[in-house]
Structure formats: C-alpha cells, structure tokens
C-alpha cells in the first residue's frame, strides 16, 4: 500500500516525489511551509 511504502503514520503527511524519488516531505497542515515546499519542488 502507498501509506506503507512512504511510511505514512499520521495525517496529513505530504510526500514530494521526482522521478519516483522522495525529495521532500512535510507532516502537518502548515500553509506557508506547504506553499514553500510546492514552490521549491516544481
């Protein structure tokens, strides 16, 4: 299952992938931090 593959044990957890490789992740719903991660990992 996807949750097991990426070690998701709490929600929300955001995992950013590029070419099937994990490049960043964030635990929790922090709007500004999430926005920054999205911008950094376009």
Notes on the protein architecture:
The protein has two helices and two strands, in the order αββα. The chain has helices spanning 2-5, 31-40, and strands spanning 13-18, 21-27. It has a two-stranded antiparallel sheet. It is flat and about 30 Å long. The model has no long low-confidence stretch (mean pLDDT 89).
Order of helices and strands: HEEH
How would you state the average pLDDT, rounded?
89
How does the helix and strand content classify structurally?
Answer: alpha+beta
Stretches where pLDDT is under 50 for at least 5 consecutive residues are none
Tell me the distance between the termini.
Answer: 25 Å
Total DSSP E strands: 2
The total count of helices amounts to 2
Q: What helical percentage do the residues reach?
A: 25-40%
Biggest sheet, spatial arrangement of strands:
1-2
Rg, rounded, reads 11 Å
Main β sheet profile: 2 strands, antiparallel
Strand fraction band? Answer: 25-35%
């Amino acid at each position: 299952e996807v949750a097991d593959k990426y070690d998701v044990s709490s929600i929300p957890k955001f995992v950013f992938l590029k070419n099937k490789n994990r490049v960043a992740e964030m635990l929790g719903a922090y709007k500004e931090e999430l926005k920054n991660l999205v911008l950094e990992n376009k």
